Fold this protein.
Amino acid sequence: YATVRSTTNLQLLALDEGGRPVGGRTWVTRFDGHLRLPDGSAEGLLAYQVGHPGDLEIRDVDGELRTRLTEDRYRDTWPRWSPDGELLAFSSDRGGGGFEVWTVRRDGSRLRQLTFMDQAGGAGDGLRPVWSPDGSRLAFDSGSPDDPSARLIDPTKAWAEQRVESIPPAEGVSRFRAHSWSPDGARLAGVGEDEAGRGVYVVSLADASYELVARAEAQAVRWLNDSRTLLFVDRRQTIRGVDTLTGETWTVLALAPDSTHGLAPEALGGSLYFERTVREADLWSARLTGSPQPE
């Protein structure tokens, strides 16, 4: 018979300014569990989802500080640091309905629900929050097949005071999911879908124009600090880079047969944190010493 063991931990990979690897990989965590969807703050703190159905935890990169922010029956996922490092935005079903966008302070206090998509005028959920570089806006995905627009809100206002902005998909793009906001504040990057399949798209916030920068079954799209280079994970579980000006792509790290769903470039540049799921299997044999006797 066989036993299979799966763990997800965080690794660190050194990169140059253009997103090319310049060194080996080191393990940041080695837990017998699953740490997913990491994000790093400018102060060197990592936030991630841990356990099932999903709680939030933060730690410093040296492992000396480790704080559980939520620990309950709800699913908290997709944590993203505010630019000042004081808040985490995340998606959660703790409101009793679908997923909504929430924030929590770095000490675990002041849980606050930002979106109420189940109320009149709302549709779908509040998924995958992404902060603007100045912290004045949050982008998120409604998850609604009837309204595939990315949404923008002001995280300082109550829901009743919000004027929710929508970024409708371009002609031919059936859906766009924002994953990352460029450090210069000008563009959103994420995954779009059209008749040819999925791809990495960049959306200009000035005129809502879309640009396909890489044709790939992509996930975990993240900007680097130059507001030019993007990293993403393709369907072969390879971390890839793309220059959004020239269209050049390159391999950063091939992970198969391992896998990843979360990338976290260092806020100050120079390194990439990412989750890595490793599956190990063992074969066992057992000697049968007898058979059951009839009564």
